[in-house]
Amino acid sequence: MRYLVWALRIVLFLLVLLFALKNTDPVTVRFFGDYVFAGVPLIVVLLLAFFVGALFAWLVSIPTRVRKTREVSRLKGEVDRLNRDVADTRQSLNALKAEELRLRSTVPASGSALQTPVRETAVGL
User: Fold this and answer.
1) Separation between Cα atoms, residue 50 and residue 45, nearest integer Å
2) CA gap 98, 100 in Å, rounded
3) Which tens digit of pLDDT belongs to each residue from 61-97?
4) Residue 58: what pLDDT?
5) Which intervals of the chain form a coiled coil (predicted)?
């Protein structure tokens, strides 16, 4: 996907460049406040407008990129916390199994009520 985006950017740039090369006549550029630039090649005006627009689009995208970066960091922290919880739960389960084995080995073989098998339920493991 990244390569497709870059390919589209290059195609767009080339189209603008070719359009600008076909329009090299001198023009007069007027700004607010009676600022006038006379005899500026149209190619310069077009390329400058293109680059200013690209810069503006990049600047506008900054808040979204920052927000996504923060969200990714938050989600990575949550994944780490959940992985620690899973490891702790497995460790507790192993400790309980070891304790069950220890208790079963100390119970006499007679028909005691403690010998009923413990039913294991796995919740999400």
Assistant:
1) 9
2) 5
3) 999 999 999 999 999 999 999 999 999 999 999 999 9
4) 95
5) 65-99
